Amino acid sequence: MGSETTHPQSGIQEQQPKATKPAPVCPAKLILFCSNLFIGLIGSQLVPECMEPSTYSSWKQVVKAITMFCVAYIMIHVGFHFDLDKSNLRQYG
């Protein structure tokens, strides 16, 4: 946390902001995630061309099930961080 100082005239304590380090010039996680997205996009277009129709049908069902599981997992975790202020519901509608 930041350090606290007392204002000389009012005697109120003020909290000084904590020093933050500058953002990296080339964020590694951003490059990694973007690379994964591009590889997945290219792979999703090339893999069906290399498969036989019966194999592709099975592959499509498996990928669909895994995708729905992952989307459900993400949405559940988004819901954990969503809070409503029930004392003032008018602000939402």
Structure overview:
- It contains two helices and two strands.
- The longest helix has 28 residues, at 53-80.
- The mean pLDDT is 82.
- A two-stranded antiparallel ribbon has the order 1-2.
- The two termini are 37 Å apart.
- The chain has 93 residues and is mainly alpha-helical.
Give a short synopsis of this structure.
The protein is 55% helix and 6% strand. With 93 residues, it is mainly α.
Topology:
Elements: E1 4-6, E2 13-15, H1 28-50, H2 53-80
Antiparallel strand pairs: 1-2
Keywords:
single chain, mainly alpha, two-stranded antiparallel sheet, 2 strands, 6% strand, elongated
Largest sheet: 2 strands, antiparallel
Which descriptor suits the 3D outline? elongated
Mean pLDDT: 82
What gyration radius follows from the Cα positions, in whole Å? 25 Å
- What structural category arises from helix and sheet content? mainly alpha
Poorly predicted segments: none
Percentage of helical residues?
A: 40-55%
Series of secondary-structure elements, N-terminal to C-terminal? EEHH
* Strand content range: 5-15%
